[in-house]
Known about the structure:
CATH superfamily of the largest domain: Crotonobetainyl-coa:carnitine coa-transferase, domain 1
Radius of gyration: 26 Å
CATH class of the largest domain: Alpha Beta
Largest sheet: 6 strands, parallel
Strand order of the largest sheet: 3-2-1-4-5-7
Low-confidence stretches: 237-242
Distance between the termini: 35 Å
Strand content: 5-15%
Structural class: alpha/beta
Amino acid sequence: MNAQALSGLKVLEYGEFVAAPYCGKLLADLGADVIKVEKPVTGDRARENGPFPKDKPDIEKSGLFLYLNTNKRGVTLDLKKAAGRKVFQELVKWADVLVENNPRQDLLKLGLDYETLHEINPKLVVTSITYFGHTGPYRDYKGCDLIANHTSVEAVLNPCYEVYNEDLNPPMKLPGHSGDFLSGVIAAINTMSAVFAAQQTGLGQHIDLSEQEAVASIVCHEIGDYFDAGITYQRDRKYRWEESPKYPCSDGFIMMNIPFQFWEGVVRMMDSPEWAQNPEYKTPVGLLHDHWKEIQPRLISWFKQHTCAEVVKRAMAQRLDISIVQSAKEISDNPMFEERGFFVEIDHKKAGKLKFPGAPCKFSATPAQAPHAAPLLGEHNAEVYGGMLGFKPAKLSKLQESGVI
């Protein structure tokens, strides 16, 4: 079997919930040896979040945790105890990368600030993910995905936007943990950039990632419009679904972009109805500005008379920009995902067989590794502490009895 793209990279993950674990997962899925450090007894707080099978909470069966921690080894360690911090320092000596998302003040209290870690391992790349970064007036503020969305412009633009007016809906964040996941992706990219630099220079560095800035980076166009032209975008109550590119069919919705240059194709798709032959529709201004309010209801009426599949077939024949609006259930049955092997099955010791999204890209020479289930709490303590670090059985027993691991 071919080596994976990141085979040989040693990553220590001291983080929980979403952002840092997702960064670690992206590295692990591409072959990095990721050791996840969790608190004894309770573990990562993601274990407390569902969904759970049959809605029965179980720290070994959290759908969120099981997805975020595939292909990792897992150990338990109490860093609030001096003995635990000594063990952690041994893991730091082993690692090429440390990914963490703990409050800055907590790291300082534990003596795990970057300067201390750099002394222990000068080649170490430390990626710190916090909501406001390690500098600036908000550096010690608490945060969450909700706060990252609302302090970064993103929330005021959802689910759609128009230029500012006086009658506005309240801001809305994207669903799920979008800000946390996005931060994990950006963290993984920048971590690998620092790894390449460390391979060239022999020195690691600190990556200080702010989730607020990570989310703001995806709305850079709207922020740029403010700096350039003083335009403030907001979500507009008057922006109705009928005015969006989402159209209702007899069995669902399709999204279809209809710029002026595609209008003739749209007309042919509809079998060239007489109303669409109006010569006043032959210019961009006439079509999309002067007459769009009378055109849109007719389009909606036509779409409602056809199924999604029928519309897509007709639209594709005209090379139009179109897609069916799919739910998670519909995606799970989509032949495109099936053909590309996007979904993977994992057999977990406690949760049983599970299906998850797999790697979103294909490497021709160094493919993502076959997925392994997320670790049970402390599953690899003996393997890591005894086998890798060489602790004797007596020491392991003492660490366990004292609650350090």
